[in-house]
Amino acid sequence: MVTTTSSADEHMHNIQTVRRKVEHELKLNISVAELSPLHQQRLLYIPRMPPLLRGAFRVAFGDRTSAAYDVEEIEKRFPKLFGQPVVKIVPNSGGPVTIGKKLRIGVVLSGGPAPGGHNVISGLFDHLQERNKDSELIGFVNGPSGIIDCNYHILTSESIDPFRNQGGFHLLGSGRTKIETVEQFAMAREAAKKCELDGLVFVGGDDTNTNAMLLAEDFKAYNIDTKVIGVPKTIDGDLRNTYIETSFGFDTAVKVYSELVANLGYDASSAKKSYHFCRLMGRSASHITLETALQTHPNMAVIGEEVEANRQSLLSVVSDIADLVVERSKLGKDFGVVIIPEGLVEFMPDMNKLISCLNDHLASNGSSSNDPTEAVKMLDNQERELFNSLPTDFQTQLLLDRDPHGNVRLSQTESERLLITMTKSELKKRSEYKGTFSAISHFFGYEGRCSLPTNFDCNYCYALGHTSAALIEAGCTGYVATVSNLTTLPEQWECGGYPLTVMMNMERRKGKMVPVIKKALISLEDPAFKIYAKQREAWRLTEDYRCPGPIQHSGNMSEELNFTLVANSEMSN
Amino acid sequence: MVTTTSSADEHMHNIQTVRRKVEHELKLNISVAELSPLHQQRLLYIPRMPPLLRGAFRVAFGDRTSAAYDVEEIEKRFPKLFGQPVVKIVPNSGGPVTIGKKLRIGVVLSGGPAPGGHNVISGLFDHLQERNKDSELIGFVNGPSGIIDCNYHILTSESIDPFRNQGGFHLLGSGRTKIETVEQFAMAREAAKKCELDGLVFVGGDDTNTNAMLLAEDFKAYNIDTKVIGVPKTIDGDLRNTYIETSFGFDTAVKVYSELVANLGYDASSAKKSYHFCRLMGRSASHITLETALQTHPNMAVIGEEVEANRQSLLSVVSDIADLVVERSKLGKDFGVVIIPEGLVEFMPDMNKLISCLNDHLASNGSSSNDPTEAVKMLDNQERELFNSLPTDFQTQLLLDRDPHGNVRLSQTESERLLITMTKSELKKRSEYKGTFSAISHFFGYEGRCSLPTNFDCNYCYALGHTSAALIEAGCTGYVATVSNLTTLPEQWECGGYPLTVMMNMERRKGKMVPVIKKALISLEDPAFKIYAKQREAWRLTEDYRCPGPIQHSGNMSEELNFTLVANSEMSN
Known about the structure:
Two copies of one chain form a homodimer.
Chain A: H1 7-27, H2 37-43, E1 57-61, H3 71-77, E2 87-91, E3 104-109, H4 117-131, E4 136-140, H5 145-148, E5 152-155, H6 157-160, H7 182-194, E6 199-204, H8 206-221, E7 227-232, H9 250-271, E8 275-280, H10 287-296, E9 300-301, H11 304-309, H12 314-330, E10 336-341, H13 344-347, H14 349-365, H15 373-377, H16 381-389, H17 392-400, H18 415-428, E11 439-444, H19 446-449, H20 455-473, E12 479-484, E13 494-499, E14 504-509, E15 512-517, H21 527-540, H22 563-572
Parallel strand pairs in A: 3-4, 3-6, 6-7, 7-12, 8-10, 8-11, 9-10
Antiparallel strand pairs in A: 1-2, 2-13, 4-5, 12-13, 14-15
Helix pairs in contact in A: 4-20, 9-10, 10-21, 12-18, 14-16
InterPro entries (chains A, B): ATP_PFK, PfpB_PPi_PFK, Phosphofructokinase_dom, PKF_sf
GO biological process, one term (chains A, B): response to glucose
Family (chains A, B): Belongs to the phosphofructokinase type A (PFKA) family. PPi-dependent PFK group II subfamily. Clade 'Long' sub-subfamily.
């Protein structure tokens, strides 16, 4: 999976890189004395990207588009912008490098942080500066609420340089506010006018990009001349489709988790006395768990989408785990590694039903009710039985950890501990089992959201930043910036934009049908899943743990692509 | 802290390295197709070490030694071996490279795994092979119980090569059995005779090295001609003294944890809504927490030894944390990072007393008692009040999670959750506090014990392996192998051995006074602590998080030493 290039190309690339590195170092606007050596080194990294983004390009418009599903309804919701053409950035062969327009662009980071966000910003900034020194980049603070409150900074080299190729979203901060109400839309229009924005870039997941599309339509309807562009971010990897090859941050985050899970495999096989149960982030989709499985070869990985496809109950999953423990124990192995996705219980039909009944009852009780056990009394027999069969800790979590809407806060429920407790009980019923079951629980999520981005995420995000600015200059609005052909060299990547409407469908949210971007769940037909399904049997009873190691930021090892991206690209080719 | 060398030296070193790398690759006895690229690359890494270990050396004996404390008593316990001289491996200038004796050496890995263990083994193996092709290395399986059961493999290139520079202890497995009873000592003597061992190398922490010394004395007393050598291992960093500059594994493990803690710092300052409370391994000593603090600059680090020195109660530590939260909240910052050592509650005089009372009562109840709450009834008023003030979860953990001796299993108690719960309560009492306290708990420990060792740990362990074999060939027994001068280039490291008795004192264990190696706790006078104490005030209210990043295995970044090692070496110079 290491990308290669011809030596002549490589030579040219190296010369250009060295030259730019020296220029870059000279202009770096920060004191580096207090930074860690790797932090300093990463500040000097020059992201690789298609050379055409550096000026000699033009924007080509393709055919009119449609929507993924519910075409009529989507068209009705977006009368102004539905059906816009695909946009591609192409070489302006023979034409001169033109000076760009003077632009004022706003950027906002939305939702959970993901490695690479700062490079979207530096990409935007550099593109604007390279095209026209008088352009300005405005950073809205703490997520979309920064737009509503008109809370922003004008970004300069001084403010951006210390964040080049660094993890986190802390240059601007992030937030989860959405622009939803009539008042909020009005305030966003005011902000766009007040800040004289030519464009506004939303960096976020499926919800944020949906929100960007709604705002683009709203601006158009009110004749606000601010173009709105989305950038696909999420470590979960579920913002991906025919148009978006991967969301940024996934590559880095899975590699952080994979290193840790692999270490736990070796820990299990060294100490030989414990199972490590690891829950990994990814609530709606199990891409992180699947990629981590391919990277590390755990004894068992539970994939939510497969559990759902097979309509497996909680007890059935527990029984599978107990089978593994019993079989390994027969070989004298009372240790191993099991990984599960954060959203696992939501994929189980029985638990899903229980949770949605609880949510309904909790909601109907209203937040004024202090006694959530009332909701349990209102359950049907079947659900009440399931609820009563759960360990007390977990019952408490289901009832007490509720989000601001009153819903069960599943991301906080410790399903890895639930599985450990229930596996223990299940093993007591297995008369053939003579082993000792000791298990240690782990949750890996927050650790990977702000880590130093891989070279892939640095390059990808930097190109996304450039592309977003180019789309705005070309007058595009209601588009997601795309960089594709990602399994080739960054110099060969293709850049452009797809109308956000092409990836939308209608879904029920809070009781209403609304247009949203369809989340990409794992399909059992996905090449990545098939590769896993073919190998997993071999991992069950052996210790075929694979050691990807920590992310390397220089040398050959720094150019490794993740399995999911490569497998998916093979599917589309 | 990057070590440097003159360019001529570097050039020579490079030529030698390249030449050896090619030889090494040709002789590598494994199929690498299924391994990750970094795994493959690390297999080819040639550890750096003092060139004199490659043959042109002799062993020099120094002055007679004594013990750290309780000299008379230690001498009485080790009548045969007390007072042996310090041993140094020195260049055999002018002398020929002699062919070594044909030796048969056993090696055993003991206790929790630590990065680098496999390089002790490859160092031992290569040393034996380089000195005499007919020598044999025997690996005892699953810890010291492998000796008692005479369960071993003869190690060959085929078995060792796939583990070079790799993390984990899984080549042999580890275990926590000690050789303690009269029968176990007799069985160990039998094993030594049956396997015709010239030497036996114990890779382990303070307890294991104490055990090695007892066995050395026993073998001597029974005229068993097997030399016993200890190798200082522990990620906790508490096996360290005038003679041992650091234990192996600490360097790698702290760097794994530091990357994660730093990521959480950026996560906190990006999302701006949560505190991350991280408990870090290190039960008896807080070196890991201190080093992680120096690497990452958290808003607060609680150092167990300081809590003990100041005789801080649980409530007092909670109050300190609440002060931090209140002060940050006044600045609009309801987020941050707090790190604590695994063994924190044991350093609090009130909690320590409570736990030891509970242990006494639980022990006097015997394991037959099914009702641990009886032990609570037997507490004095003051302890019972403290117990009752603890959150219910934590009460349950204290009573139910008990080790095989019936003692409270503190490593499993989630003190980070205890502090979160109690901080929440404390904040309710602070009328000036208007913020929102949301906290996420983490425990980092197992993730770092088996990770790919840093170049430092690879080199250090490889040199320790060579040194151990050299000591055995020179007829030394009851020594710890030492490699010192560690902040210089590996080529300039000094190798030798210290009699294990020099670092012993008498301590009460299970009601009896026994000779043990004194654990190295943090002293408030340690340079590393002083550096931290001087800086920490600046970290409280800012987000001066430092990003060490993931461990890099090649390039300049791979040669970074940890702060604790450098600071301590400055103390001794």
